[in-house]
Design a protein that fits this description.
2 domains, Glutaredoxin, about 210 residues, binds glutathione, Glutathione S-transferase Yfyf (Class Pi), Chain A, domain 2
């Protein structure tokens, strides 16, 4: 049995499918060639039924034998420490990878997630438009000049940045050819396609068992 277990919800509605963050860990394991299994917790009562494993009642979380980790980024860093394919072992390559992982979270996703949620409201103006635009324009400049974020090759930093940028509403917000090309290249990788297809299949199977009560 695989030592690595990725925990996620047993079912979600159509909207988040393909974007539930267990995908970050599935994708990383696929890139690294690490064996893993996926286990689930019930969607019903999800805010309280696994607080001992994820204090905010969210998914994913990861088991590696006795070691237990919540937060997708912490899980990703753990996997990156296990595989050089995700993070180089030389100090410069490692520092660049960690730096861009944190940039994806703290400089882009920190803006894009609240921007996305504000966009769900009825307000005509999203107060975060200018902030998001500035962050997306800056990353566009970076991606115009390079193929990879760190170490001149694919790393966990590209995985995370692409996962943050691939959200359809973010992708459609302005015209940024370098970012678009980058997202298309990263999500065209066989490891991403496998992880994505597996997540969709997981929830499709859950639909079936909910409808048959199996
Ligand atoms: N910071 C957390 C966020 C995780 C997160 O947003 N999880 C979503 C699924 S992608 C979730 O569990 N949503 C259910 C909820 O918040 O009730 C991480 O990256 O692991």
């Amino acid at each position: 049995m695989a030592e690595l277990t990725i925990w996620t919800l047993d079912w979600v509605s159509e909207g988040p499918r393909g974007f539930v963050r267990d995908l970050r860990l599935r994708w990383a394991c696929e890139e690294a060639g690490l064996a893993y299994s996926v286990r689930t917790i019930p969607f019903e009562d999800r805010t309280t039924n696994h607080l001992s494993r994820q204090p905010f009642g969210q998914v994913p979380y990861l088991d590696d034998g006795e070691l237990k980790i919540f937060e997708s980024r912490a899980g990703l860093l753990h996997l990156a420490r296990k595989s050089e394919r995700l993070m180089p072992r030389d100090p410069v390559g490692e520092a660049e990878t960690v730096q861009w992982i944190i940039a994806a979270l703290n400089s882009i996703e920190m803006v894009s997630v609240p921007w996305w949620f504000l966009g769900l409201s009825d307000a005509t103006d999203n107060g975060l438009d200018a902030w998001l635009e500035s962050r997306l324009d800056h990353i566009e400049t970076v991606l115009n000049e390079r193929e990879w974020l760190a170490a001149d090759r694919f790393t966990a930093a590209d995985l995370l940045m692409a996962d943050v940028l691939r959200v359809p509403k973010v992708r459609a917000y302005g015209v940024r050819p370098a970012s678009e090309n980058y997202v298309a290249r990263m999500t065209g990788r066989p490891a991403f396609r496998k992880a994505y297809a597996d997540q969709l299949a997981h929830y499709a199977a859950a639909d079936k068992s909910r409808s048959t009560g199996a």
